[in-house]
Write a structure and sequence with these properties.
Helices cover 51% and strands 0% of the residues. The chain has one helix at 24-48.
């Protein structure tokens, strides 16, 4: 079976964006964004069922 290239990486480091060092505020915002994405994914998956 042939593997196809994925257009977007499944796992991307959000801490290495070339910005200033990671602050507590930025860390918190990244966690909030991650939690929101997980909740949206779960809501979408629940709608599919």
């Amino acid at each position: 079976m042939e593997r196809t290239a994925i257009s977007q990486a499944a796992c991307v480091s959000i801490f290495r964006e070339g910005e200033a060092p990671l602050t507590v505020e930025r860390y918190t915002q990244l966690w909030i964004r991650l939690i929101n994405q997980i909740e949206q994914s779960r809501a979408a998956a629940a709608g599919i069922r």
